[in-house]
Amino acid sequence: MTETAADTVMDVKVDQTTETTDILPNQTIYVNNINEKLSQKKLKEQLYGLFSKYGTILEIISSKRQKMKGQAFIVFQDITAASNALREMNGFSFFDRNINVQYSKNKSDAVSKLDGTYVEKKRERETEQEKRKAKKQDNKKSTKQSKTTSTSTPSGNVAPREAPPNRILFVENLPDNCQEMMIQMLFSQFPGFQSVNMTTARKGVAFVEYDDDIKSGLAMSHLQGFKVTSDRPMVISFAAQ
Known about the structure:
The protein is an alpha+beta fold.
């Protein structure tokens, strides 16, 4: 295994010392509390000499990186060898340190190649990148759809117009038989109300006037989408000047 690959494995397994009771017996053991003064070459040589008596060792993984020092992974050919090594070597004094030995949380590349489940790290990273890219695109689509929905009414056929805030509101999507008195009752409950004007040239619309744009904006925020009838939510915007 190359140095880069070893670093990747060590990064994945840096939290190995937690929640060990749930780890199932496997061919790889994790060794930590190793004397950090040992060079990587000497460490591997000494570990091989110490653990090879329990069975065939496929691989010893360690890293030169500072935060990864003091730990290593030893991959045996079979679980029996790994189990015997763990049982007898846990707590063993190794270069003035009592080492901790436990089963590894993750399967090593060497074992994966033996059982046919190995996936190259490069391809694995590419797959993760593809997943992240797809997720990002989905999020963009969701955001776009959300924006589209927010600018349309539940009926989907009328959207609020865009105009600078002012004291006159333009109300649309009213029922054809809607009376001026009904609109006045709705909008007069807000401060600053002055008048309602329903046009005869076009059904289903009205203009509502307030003292200023702050009061008209307050009324709009409260009544936007209010259903005069069950299928006709009001669409309110500032009137074009």
